[in-house]
Amino acid sequence: MSALDDLGPEDGPPVLLFHGHPFDRSMWRPQAERLASAGHRALVPDLRGYGQAPPAGHATPFDAFARDGAALLDRLGLESAVVGGLSMGGQIAMEFHRLFPDRVRGLLLAATSAPPETPGGRDRRDAAADRVLAEGMDAYAHELLSGMLAPATAGRDPDLARYVLEMMCAAPPQGAAAGLRGRARRADPRPSLARAAVPTVVIVGTEDPFTPVEEARAIRELVPGARLTVLPGTAHLPNLEDPEGFGRALDSLSETITP
């Protein structure tokens, strides 16, 4: 599949990672390579409407993103996987767990929040969807960049800042708009998370303006036995700003999973 990175041994314990908005699967490259080198099978798809995935319609319901992930596991003959995501991808991982709890062997929830959207949040996401369809991604992406990376990160690593900006600008407007509309109407995952019976790691950056540390703590308190890693000096993309610190937290989850 052109819209899937499948790294590591075929018989390795599988890890399915959902990217955030408005990104693509390449944002997980450091983690996919780390997992593969440790003997895991890293499955990193482009979400419907993003990257090289097929175009989306007017709106992509969150259950559609989650069912796409389940269909991927089915195609590969896999019963279950560690399931994770960042930001919107983390919310899709929660939706996957809500729909398919028996297929989840562990949860990675990074830079994300659990509560469903408020009425005001729905209006803002719908307005953003209309905007990217009317204007394209460039202005929207430039505005998001300052929250995606901590200022210190952007200052010391301009190549990373350029890569993140280019990735956001390259997102198909139709897919990004459909994702925003679906996200605005996502189901409440908290009841299923409160019953989660799998190893769970929550990761957040201290400088994240979109999902502050308090949101991560709320997930940690909600999910039985969940562990929280706070990465200093990182914002909304801690996996790219501090791949080593993020990787150690991911190791602590993946090492609990046996073939």
Automatic annotation (TrEMBL):
This is Alpha/beta fold hydrolase. GO terms for molecular function: hydrolase activity. It comes from Nocardiopsis suaedae. The lineage of its organism: Bacteria, Bacillati, Actinomycetota, Actinomycetes, Streptosporangiales. Residues 13-243 form the AB hydrolase-1 domain. InterPro entries: AB_hydrolase_1, AB_hydrolase_fold, AB_hydrolase_sf, Epox_hydrolase-like. Keywords: Hydrolase. Gene3D superfamilies: alpha/beta hydrolase.
